[in-house]
Description:
The chain is about 30% helix and about 20% strand. It has helices at about 5-15, 20-45, 70-85, 150, 220-230, 250-260, 280-295, 325-335; strands at about 90-95, 100, 110-120, 130-140, 160-165, 170-175, 180-185, 190-195, 210, 245, 265, 280, 300, 315-320, 320-325. Helix 5 (about 220-230) links the parallel strand 9 and strand 10 (about 245). The protein contains 8 helices and 15 strands. It has 2 domains: about 5-195, Fructose-1,6-Bisphosphatase, subunit A, domain 1 (Fructose-1,6-Bisphosphatase, Chain A, domain 1), CATH 3.30.540.10; about 210-335, D-Maltodextrin-Binding Protein, domain 2, CATH 3.40.190. The strands form 3 sheets. The chain has an 8-stranded mixed beta sheet with strand order 2-1-3-4-5-6-7-8, with helices on both faces. Strands 10-9-11-15-13 form a 5-stranded mixed beta sheet, with helices on both faces. Bound molecules: 6-O-phosphono-beta-D-fructofuranose (F6P). 6-O-phosphono-beta-D-fructofuranose binds next to loops.
Amino acid sequence: MNRATLTRFLIDEQYDHHAVPADLRLLIEVVSRAIKAISINVGKGALAGLLGDAGPGGASINVQGEAQKKLDVIANEILLEANEWGGHLAAMASEEMEGPHAIPHRYPKGEYLLLFDPLDGSSNIDVNASVGTIFSVLRCPDGVTDPSEKDFLQPGRDQVCAGFAVYGPSTVLVLTLGRGVHAFTLDRELGSFVLTRENIRIPVDTQEFAINLSNRRFWEAPMQRYIDELLAGKAGPRGKDFNMRWIASMVADVFRILTRGGIFLYPRDNKDPSKPGRLRLMYEANPMAWIIEQAGGAATTGRERLLDVIPTSLHQRVPVMLGSKNEVAVVSGYHQS
Ligand code: F6P
């Protein structure tokens, strides 16, 4: 079968649908090339000595206070280096860096801001399970030439592109430009991403949920009630049995939901009052929320639509509930009542 490559898909979006300007197309191509490079590094694993913690004593800590893996650092560097010189960006921000990364003065600057989690689910690296890269693209505010943190603080509904890659048995890139969600599989022989799923739609109902159940005692009452009712199955108030999956890698859990439906939950908990949730709004929750909505699902904090949250800081954390529409409506109903 003659399938479109990512390049061909983007050219069609640019000329036939006017859905992607040339510089945004370049940006996506550059990010996809970086993703190929990260995929190659992830695939080498122990052969290239890439497993384990970063830092000489194995104890490097990132801005979030989390232990950095070698591959976190490598993936971050690959994305920074690939995106510095193309003239498509005004600045970048990453989970691994405290503040925005400016484009060096020797390179041209563009109109977009790129945010990323270079290696999501990195606790899975050493156990050889799926990890991924998540990214979000915003417009740089008019007249701003040296963007600072406040220029990035735009709600998720203003994204112009969102995507993620899963480094699993195959490497898959999932993308939205606001005209549906499409998946591209990396053809390792050709070195190209090839369109393998067009206009992905998530079933509105589901009997499968994803949550880290070990946190139950820290959750708020509406979340405890919701999960207890799912666990009660046929005999409980929901009147049906539910299955559970938790890969502990958001990219892989969300890809499953895009494939067969489901609900993914990382709710607020009271383990650490300074953290109203685990996942980061700007480069985890927002891009995933837009992708899920574009595929016909829903995404909420429990109290408001995720894409409407007004950010207050680059590394802000939020509660996340997303997936099949009717199930997300039940859990947010419990939070609002
Ligand atoms: O930091 C993000 C992340 O790794 C997600 O990819 C994943 O869903 C979650 O954290 C896993 O959390 P936990 O370690 O509580 O299972």
